[in-house]
């Protein structure tokens, strides 16, 4: 079996499996999907500071969370930061190797951001009692002038991102490790009282819906890409 290139030449399947980006980049539809996804994500990330400033000024409801009442709040920003960005770095590394993972991660994150804008807008909540500010110098850049937002609650973006990494990765072992890291981050967010329990528990479900939509997008040469571990 051979793969046709844009210039009319052919390459064997083994070459395509070893160079999936080079093969797929020859296809205009794949390029368009990348450009549209990147442009959409840039547009949403540019809007987030404005949106966060808006929701921070409104009043919301305080939930009576019995689990948080049982957990004394502690600052666990460092382990949260380490788990999130190590997982993000590894997933991006795998995405650079596997175009299918890249497309799934790109559009999955795009849909997660869109869905969180909708759910946060519809569900106005005030932060939990005894909240300790989460110190994340990278993520906090998207919060605008405030530097830290307390009302972007339903559903948890940190937990959602970690779950998305686990869903997008292909290897069983790496999916398991990413899933355990996601569970750890969710628990640590509750320890720091950054989110209500419902914010963390619903994140895997809503993120999975976003992932399924992203995964349903047709990816060219899918059968070849699956050969790349």
Mean pLDDT: 86
End-to-end Cα distance: 20 Å
Secondary-structure element series: EEHHHHHHHHHH
Strand content: under 5%
Record the strand order, biggest sheet: 1-2
- The secondary-structure class comes to mainly alpha
Uncertain runs = 220-229
State Rg: 20 Å
Principal-axes geometry comes out as: globular
Number of helices: 10
Residues in helices, as a percent range: 55-70%
Count the E strands: 2
Oligomer classification? single chain
Q: What can be said about the biggest beta sheet?
A: 2 strands, antiparallel
Number of separate domains: 1
Notable traits:
single chain; 229 residues; mainly alpha; two-stranded antiparallel sheet; 10 helices; 2 strands; globular; transmembrane helix; Sphingomyelin_synth-like_dom
Characterize the structure shown.
The protein is an all-alpha fold. The protein has one domain (2-225). 63% of the residues lie in helices and 3% in strands. It has ten helices and two strands, in the order E-E-H-H-H-H-H-H-H-H-H-H. The chain has helices spanning 13-18, 20-24, 28-56, 66-70, 77-97, 99-122, 157-168, 172-191, 197-215, 222-225; strands at 2-4, 10-12. Strands 1-2 form a two-stranded antiparallel sheet. Helix 3 (28-56) runs parallel beside helix 6 (99-122) and helix 5 packs parallel to helix 7. Mean pLDDT is 86; it is low at 220-229. The chain crosses the membrane at residues 34-56, 76-93, 105-124, 153-169, 176-195. Keywords: Membrane, Transmembrane, Transmembrane helix. It holds the Pfam family PAP2_C.
């Amino acid at each position: 079996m051979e793969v046709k290139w844009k210039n009319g030449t052919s390459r064997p399947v083994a070459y395509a499996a070893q160079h999936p980006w080079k093969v797929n980049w020859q296809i205009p539809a794949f390029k368009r999907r990348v450009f549209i996804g990147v442009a959409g994500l840039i547009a949403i990330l540019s809007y987030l500071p404005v949106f966060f400033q808006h929701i921070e000024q409104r009043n919301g409801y305080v939930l009576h969370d019995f689990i948080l009442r049982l957990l004394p709040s502690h600052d666990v920003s460092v382990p949260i930061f380490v788990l999130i960005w190590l997982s993000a770095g590894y997933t991006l590394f795998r995405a650079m190797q596997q175009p299918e993972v890249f497309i799934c991660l790109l559009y999955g994150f795009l849909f997660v951001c869109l869905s969180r804008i909708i759910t946060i807008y519809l569900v106005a909540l005030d932060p939990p009692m005894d909240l300790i500010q989460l110190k994340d110098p990278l993520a906090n850049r998207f919060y605008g002038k405030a530097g830290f937002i307390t009302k972007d609650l339903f559903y948890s973006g940190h937990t959602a991102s970690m779950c998305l990494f686990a869903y997008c990765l292909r290897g069983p072992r790496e999916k398991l490790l990413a899933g355990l890291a996601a569970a750890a981050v969710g628990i640590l967010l509750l320890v720091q009282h950054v989110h209500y329990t419902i914010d963390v528990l619903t994140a895997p479900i809503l993120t999975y819906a976003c992932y399924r939509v992203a995964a349903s997008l047709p990816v060219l040469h899918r059968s070849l890409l699956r050969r790349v571990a």
